[in-house]
Amino acid sequence: MYAEIIIPLALPKNYTWQVPQEMREGLQPGCRVEVSLKNKKYAGILKRFITEKPEAFDPRPIESVLDTEPLVYKEQLALWEWIAQYYMCSEGEVMAASLPAHFKLSSESTIVFNESFGDDFSSLDHDEYLVAEALLLKKELKIPAVQEILHGAAVYPVVKRLIDKSVCYVYESLKELYKPKTETYISLHSDYAAEEKLEELLNQDKKWSRAEKQMELLLSFLHIKKTEPEVSRSALLKKSGATDAQLKALITKNILVAEQRPVDRLRVMPRHIQIPFVLSAAQEAALATIRSHFETKNTTLLHGYTSSGKTQVYIKLIEEQLLKNKQVLYLVPEIALTSQIVRRLQMHFGGYLGIYHSRFSQNERFEIWNKVRKNEIRILLGARSALFLPFVDLSLVIVDEEHDSSYKQQDPAPRYHARDAAIYYASLFQAKTLLGSATPSIESYYNATVGKYGLAELLERYGQVAMPVIQLIDTKRFFQKDGSKVICTPALQEAIRKSLDQKKQVILFRNRRGYSPYQVCKFCGWIPQCKNCDVSLTFHKLTNKLLCHYCGTSYPPVNTCAACGNHEFIQRNFGTEKIEEELETIFPDAHIARMDMDSVRGKTAHDMLIKQFEQQRVDILVGTQMVVKGLDFDHVDLVGILDADSLLNFSEFRVNERAFQLMEQVSGRAGRKDGLGKVLIQVANTKHPVLQWVMDHDYKTFFAKETEARKQFSYPPFSRIIRITFKHKMQAVVHDAASVFALHLHKEFSNYLTGPGEPMVARIRNQYIMELMLKLPKNGSTIAYAKQVIQQQRAILQNDRKFRSVTIVPDIDPA
User: Fold this and answer.
1) Is the peptide bond preceding residue 557 cis, with omega within 30 degrees of 0?
2) Cα separations in angstroms, 499 against 504, 584, 635, 777
């Protein structure tokens, strides 16, 4: 018997190993096995069994089995295979992106001794003892060192047993140790289990005459024990006001017993289903339409205005699935959206809800993974990586804000789109997918109009609240003394002042962080640029640094022009940091906060800021795209878009779609509960057609005009795009590689090929970049053939010594 094994490497195909006779019983697809490749050991996932021996070589045997039951199920393996095929990457790369770090043991892994285990190894077997003794001396060991200690015997089973017994932990590149979180629980010693024995203890006046505090602590424990099934150390000390020393004394006297037990890192809430709201007539109609479409179609698009109550429709659908004991996956595009939705879903469903995203530690991800695998979590809310969790009974996938480009993974591979992958994943379970958005992507709305998806509409705001009034402010009429862009026009200042006087809140949107996007020498026009990238440096005043937003390199502020030696610089344009500073000058009594990548760091920072804004402890919120997406604030009556031109002036085919979505989404934050919201858009190009569609909240006209233009130039949804990117540290080499590649593609796809050419930013991290683009007809066989040719040409090019070190990255359906 042989097996196809996936290991977490970018290999051209999965390799085959032999399954020894003694390992066959109980071994299933989805289990981890220990294999060797080029003298390195890996924990791979068994994909499938093969009965015929490969002709070209003799497979090496699997060295050991790490799991007694599958770690991933057949649906996850099918999803990995589909992503690898569709997005032109390897299943090993998908595996590496999918599994929490603790599951990805390899020769590069380091195991670290757990000091709290102590040095009593009497419970360990011979091999475990040898490794534990070495760890006690060395404190940490690489897997090859463990191999030497065990003289080449199977390593991973021994390491796994030591991890399970808490003798050691895996030290990953993220510098986190996996260990179960423990809590100390206090119980009464068995000597005093009988009531008469306990009464006798309490009545020993001589015993307690010099230990009154200990007596009080014991009485507190007995009091808490009456109402609580278990008494934790922290709860006991808090309620009794006692000290650690007093508790330790009672433990030393064998009156109380302390026991450490593993507990969940994630707060466990009681499970319940509470739906206290009633849907409006429009929501009921939308829900009925969704149910009707689900009878005949697997995917339905819900197009609902901002503040129309789409989330309440989702909650009703989730309730239906919970009552059937099914699982639901609820995807949101960014972590930023989770905090408000988490509170709403917890209010309705309590402990049925689990959360998963990149800000969670590896330990927390490990625990959530196992809870989903064991069907303990019924509703999973998460960003795109939640798609890879091992569901067992999935019946509904909700993709909220489905238009958002954050659903597309950029680097590294797999460069998948979570919305499209979610639709495929749901189909593996015969589950239904609901896409929701106020501004659907052109592709999704097109699929709905041609009947591929069902379409439900919710085109009125909840509670009959009116859509916000949108006005343009022509910035050409306003000039700063130094000729730079105006940040806050008089009309916007007056509107902000009026809102603050009425005790309302204001959101100001600017899609650029930092203080000043670039600074210019006043005399010769020289602009400081990053040494590693072809971009100008952004000045961050708070940290007093120049920062490259592409590679992250920081530089000290420049005071002398490198070109002419002068010392005067002009700050051009403005970011969120500068806006915040100006507002503090104009409105000194207002509470102003900023929401961007610089100000919101850490797992809870974003949630804390949103809570402050909800509680009206912040009057004006300045932010980047973080303030745009799906947030719901009752007291916001004014939204300002400070520089709409920056959204409209890109040479990219999705520019109108992105601008419309951003402006419509941010305008939807205004006037959500009471009164009429107002949106002011500062813009120089007031005649741009997108602005009129935003002012009229007219998605359908925008869609009609945009699809007309895209059809003319053969852009999605009328074609499939494959972008091929070439990177190399030498400009001449990357130009030649792209030209040679294009020459070969031209023979087969001359009608569909664009390029090669340099992108807008032609050098990042000292790598020069060239791009090719294929606009292929929506024909499955043509697309499959194109992918095959691209893979072949990549292999041919990289066999050439000149181009061996060129990185070639195909990106399917780039965002």
Assistant:
1) no
2) 5, 16, 10, 51
Of 657, 667, 676, 674, the closest CA to residue 695 belongs to 667
CA–CA separation, 378 vs 658, rounded Å? 34
User: So what's the pLDDT on residue 775?
Assistant: 95
Helix, strand, coil shares, percent, the chain, to 5:
40, 20, 40
**Residues 703 and 438: beta-carbon distance below 8 Å:** no
Q: Strand 15-18 to strand 2-6: parallel, antiparallel, or no bridges (unpaired)?
A: antiparallel
Question: CA 785 to CA 747: how far, in whole Å?
Answer: 13
Task: Tell me what the mean pLDDT of segment 496-520 comes to.
Answer: 90
Query: Cα(408)–Cα(443) distance, rounded to whole angstroms?
Result: 14
Query: In which residue are the tokens 């009091």 written?
Result: 223
Predicted local confidence at residue 174, as pLDDT: 25
Q: Residue 625: how many CA atoms within 13 Å on its side-chain side?
A: 11
**Complete edge-to-edge strand list for the sheet that includes strand 545-547:** 538-540, 545-547, 554-555
Distance CA 282, CA 44 (A): 51
CB 546 within 8 A of CB 557: yes
CA-to-CA dists, residue 355 to 52, 372, 686, angstroms:
43, 11, 43
Which tokens is 539 given? 């000045």
For 247-275, the pLDDT digits (tens) are: 888 888 888 888 887 665 555 667 788 88
Q: What is the structure's pLDDT at 401?
A: 92
Q: Which residues have C-beta within 8 Å of that of residue 686, sequence separation ≥ 6?
A: 472, 474
Q: Tokens 């949108």 map to which residue?
A: 470
Name the H helices within 527-644. Answer: 576-586, 605-614
Q: Please report where in the chains the tokens 């490990």 appear, as a residue.
A: 366
Q: Which residues have C-beta within 8 Å of that of residue 674, sequence separation ≥ 6?
A: 465, 634
Q: What is the pLDDT of residues 607-654, one digit of tens each?
A: 788 888 888 899 999 988 877 765 778 888 899 999 999 899 887 899
Tokens standing for residue 708: 């007309």
List the one residue out of 171, 9, 195 whose CA is nearest residue 94. Answer: 9
What are the pLDDT digits (tens) for 74-106? 999 999 999 999 999 999 999 999 988 778 766
**What is the β-pairing status of strands 569-572 and 518-521?**
antiparallel
Which DSSP symbol is given to 401?
A: T
H or E stretch at 33: strand 32-37
On whether the CB atoms of residues 573 and 518 are closer than 8 A, the answer is: yes
pLDDT score at 477? 83
408: DSSP letter: B
Map tokens 């592409």 to a residue.
Answer: 550
Q: Which residues lie across from 6 on neighbouring strands? A: 45
Model confidence at 179: pLDDT above 60: no
Q: How far apart are CA 721 and CA 655, in angstroms?
A: 16
Among candidate residues 717, 789, 766, the one with its CA nearest the CA of residue 550: 766
Dihedrals phi, psi of 535, to nearest 5 degrees? -140, 155
The model's pTM: 0.80
Q: How crowded is residue 805: how many other Cβ atoms within 10 Å of its Cβ? A: 13
3-class secondary structure, 611: helix
For residue 439, the 8-state DSSP code is S
> Could you report the per-residue pLDDT of 701-752, keeping only the tens digit for each?
999 999 999 999 999 999 999 999 999 999 999 999 999 999 999 988 999 9
